[in-house]
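Q: Predict the bound structure with uracil.
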Amino acid sequence: MYDHLTIVDHPLVQHKLSLMREKETQSAVFRQLLREISQLLAYEVTRELPMTTQEIDTPLQKMDAPVLAGKKLALVSILRAGNGLLDGILELIPLARVGFVGLYRDEETLEPVQYYFKVPEALEDRLVIAVDPMLATGNSSVAAIDLLKKAGARNIRFLCLLAAPEGVARMKEAHPDVPIITASLDERLNENGYIVPGLGDAGDRMFGTK
Ligand code: URA
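A: Predicted complex:
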């Protein structure tokens, strides 16, 4: 079982994350690092996927080989920054079903506003991995998980690159059944809702916007 918060402290993850935090790191490199980290985080978040066996023929003999069991998992990207995590994970789990939740953060109230929602069918039978690089106030993450539960999801994990203590607490209060897997628990949020020390606006850094 997962604790409510799992920090993946693997040296490769931590090294790549430090490169991403550096303000001089260019968008193309930032995206590549995020893709690489997403795969290392996906390795952790899928550690307990159910398995079964299937009879196969190796060149030498038959064997009951371990394979993934159950319905294909669903990856749900919380737009737009979630897509930076999604791409790498899809490379690793190409048969996953994919959904999108469009939420933007009102810069004044910091409250999430929904503009898009499209998810795979039969969410109730799938492991659902919601991805968003930054768990900051937790407002949009909580709102996204609310929507996924309304759509039937019962087994959800939340994968992010950085988390602030405020966001972790908010998620724990609203969705104690949803484990969070992250590369770092940073110090705090600043007065603008940014994670400190953080890496700035993940979407802007990924796509070169400002
Ligand atoms: N979203 C971001 O992209 N960065 C933060 O620091 C907080 C929320």
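A: Residues 81, 134, 136, 193-195, 198, 201-203 surround uracil (CB under 6 Å).
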